[in-house]
Every structure is written in structure tokens, then in C-alpha cells.
């Protein structure tokens, strides 16, 4: 069984949760800080596995320099991966993103979808993926490209924060006329998958999408948040054309509701997790999408 794990980005949301989970399951964790320019001198990565979480997150305000994405997400990953190749470590996990494949999804995103990222974030992640996948692996080593969709859990509100505030304040949801489906990923399901890969030596190297088993519409998400807070859903089916006209006005007057925000709130983004479940020999993950979201939303309430 794998015992010693090297983790970069351990101070982030995923890193903190994954570190605790792996420790609780008998693994020894060593933190590797890539912000230290002399990181190669300070730690021996001859553990059993390297989990590379550190990276520059997607800047939704588009204020970050393109070069910074490639310096952090691509160049640092390449440096770390080359160290892994020379080390005695068996496994390398690169945490990429579904955004390395597509910013918009028609149908269902799976590992056979041809990547076409549009942002510097997605492009920098994909370039690192390609370097890792093109390498000649020494015998006995495995490489996993992990592509999670939107991760949530206690301690990380993320994009759920807006919907939580709307429901908490009993504000009706005005976009109920729009139908969509989105995939989410609860941190507990992500932790389960990584630990299972570490424990099973027969899981093949490759690219794996990671998402909860079922996708939810935004209306279902609003209903789930209401359920977690013990409230009755208030869904308003205002005409799509009226909402779209309002968003157009928002574009011109720079109001909170504009075309870009409307698109983000109503677009579909469905991710298949069938490949990783088949590799692990399981039919479903520990938590359904609804169960995971209820757990997260209740944690917001408890923190107040």
C-alpha cells in the first residue's frame, strides 16, 4: 500500500481537505511549497506518490497576465514532473481542470472530447497535460491527469455563494424559465477517488474527468439549497425574452445582470465520470450530487 505522499498546494481548499483525508486513511503527507525558489533543495520527492495541486486559479475578472498562467500552471508543472521522473516515486497526479478541454459544453464532456480551451487558464493547463502525457514513463510509474469540475464542500462557498445568499434572503429565483444541466463535485467524492487510485495498483495511467454521478439544473440546485436551509423554493418563470432584454440593458448600463452573467447562470456543463468509475470498479460515488450540496450548504449556515 502507498504510504508517503508529496502534496503541492496543500494550503488550498482541495489540498487541506485531501491531506486530512489521506492522513485519516493511513498515509503520511509531506508538503511541498513551490513558491520557495529553492524547493528542489529542501525536499526529497522520493515518496510513493506526488499530488500536484498548486497552480494559478482561473481569474474570472480577466485581470491576470497570460504569461503568469503559463509560468505557474505549465512551467512549474514541467519542472516538478521532471523531478518525479528522476525520483523513486511511483505515481504522479496532475490536477488539471475540465476547462483545459472546453469553456462551453454541448452534450456531455468526456475524456474523448477534443480539447479546445479558450482562456489562458485552460490553455496553460492543457499545455502541461500534453507535456506529461507525451513523456516516456519509466517502468513501474503511473501518471494521472485529474480534471475536476466545480469542487465544493464545507469551507469553500465558491460559485454557490450567490445562490446561497439569494435563498437565504428568501429572494425569488427569476430565471426558472431557463433549463440547463450542470455537473458539480463534492470534496468528499474527490477525496474518495484519489485515495482509491493510490490504493489500487492496477488503475492505468491516463486522463480522468472527476464529477459527481448526476448533474443538476439550476432550478434543482435552488431547490436543493432551499431544502438544506429548510425553506420553500421560490421559482419565478419570467419570460426568457424579457430576461434577455434586461441583460442587454445591463450590458449597456453595466448592471449586475448582463449577458455574460446570464449565460453563466443558465448554461449547461455536464461532465461524465464513467471512465474513473469503470477503472475503480464501482457503480457510484459515496455521495450523490444532492447529498453533497446539502452538506456544503448546511456548513455555510453553521458558520454564521
Describe the structure.
The chain is an alpha/beta fold and 304 residues long. It has a domain at 4-148: 3-Layer(aba) Sandwich (Rossmann fold). Helix content is 43%, strand content 13%. It is built from 11 helices and 10 strands. The strands form 3 sheets. Strands 2-1-3-4-6-9 form a 6-stranded parallel sheet, with helices on both faces. The chain has a two-stranded parallel sheet with strand order 5-10. Helix 5 links the parallel strand 7 and strand 8. The chain is globular. The chain starts with a strand and ends with a helix.
Helicity level: 40-55%
Biggest sheet details: 6 strands, parallel
Mean pLDDT reading: 92
Which word captures the global form? globular
Structural class: alpha/beta
Would you identify the CATH architecture of the domain at 4-148? 3-Layer(aba) Sandwich
Strand content: 5-15%
Strand arrangement in the largest pleated sheet: 2-1-3-4-6-9
Superfamily at the CATH H level of the domain at 4-148?
NAD(P)-binding Rossmann-like Domain
Note the topology.
Layout (H helix, E strand, L loop, with lengths): L3 E5 L4 H12 L3 E5 L6 H4 L6 E4 L13 H21 L4 E5 L12 E2 L10 H15 L7 E7 L1 E3 L7 H9 L15 E3 H13 L6 E5 L7 H12 L10 H14 L5 H8 L3 E2 L2 H7 L8 H15 L1
Parallel strand pairs: 1-2, 1-3, 3-4, 4-6, 5-10, 6-9, 7-8
Characteristics:
alpha/beta, Rossmann fold, six-stranded parallel β-sheet, two-stranded parallel sheet, 11 helices, 10 strands
